[in-house]
Amino acid sequence: MQRGSACGKVILLGEHAVVYGVPAIVLGIDRGATALAVGPPTAAQSELTLGQTDRVTEDGASDVARAFAAILRACAVTRPVHVEVTTELPAGAGLGCSAALGVAIVRALDAWEGRPAATASDAAERAMAWEQVFHGNPSGIDATAAARGGCLLYQRMSGGMHLNEIALALPLTLAIGHSGVSSSTREMVDLVAKLKARNEENVTRSFEAIHSLVQNARLALEAGDHTGLGKLMDLNQVLLSGLMVSTEEIETMCRCAREEGALGAKLTGSGGGGCVVALIDGDPGRVVARWQKEGFRAFSTTVSSSVGTEERSRLP
Ligand code: MEV
Predict the structure, then answer these.
(1) pTM of the entire predicted model
(2) Atom of ligand 1 nearest to the CA of 270
(3) In terms of CB atoms within 10 Å, which end of the chain has fewer, N or C?
(4) Test site for ligand 1: of 185, 214, 243, 268, most ligand atoms within 8 A of the Cβ
């Protein structure tokens, strides 16, 4: 049995703008996905099982089946295989569930083929074949975070990307809560594209403002200025609301988090539902408990200083 794993992600600042070449800050989180290449399939076609019930074969017509076929091609798999995947990440929640699954599958397929572990960038690139089926034309930030973890400044460039590791001066404590509504990244990205087509000047101005927030947030992370970072997250949330990707639940969750002492709070990922991330000074328990009292599922996590790129590229 050959195993691969990958982490989920939280975008701290810069979602949506990142699709248009603005840098964004992304963190790998300790919840993720695992894939096991368990052996040959029961039939001639490669098969993928998710949990107890969902099963697709590579010739199926569903999105998952087509994504599976695409990743088998990207990995040049030479013999049929049965892959089982599990994840602790909710789907359609902005935590990089599909990218974590994609990177984990790439790693399991490499192990199945007896190949040496791929570099993080190669694993992320091949996982994009899977991501594109679900999300259309994603920026690639999710797959990169899934393959590398740590804290990254990610910028999409024509024909590639620019990546910088951000050295965290202090660990980050985050509360992450689910609005209870799942959303489609593809639809939310389309919605912003339509808004931009209708209102080019305003949306471009919002992206420029997000760009400066991201640059300042990088400095705040490197200096350990979490109070400043929280304020930048709040400002990013205002700009995201202006891009029409926030919802009533997200606004409620941000307000509750701030009332319970969070340094800043915003949606993370594509919005339209999904998750809110709140930056915490000290114990995240108050924010998590308040969200739960209001009926939202929530957990907390800590992100410490980045581990080295080489170490991450050797993730199992
Ligand atoms: C996805 O997690 C965040 C978006 O910026 C889309 C993308 O980067 O592909 C909304």
Answers:
(1) 0.94
(2) 10
(3) N
(4) 185
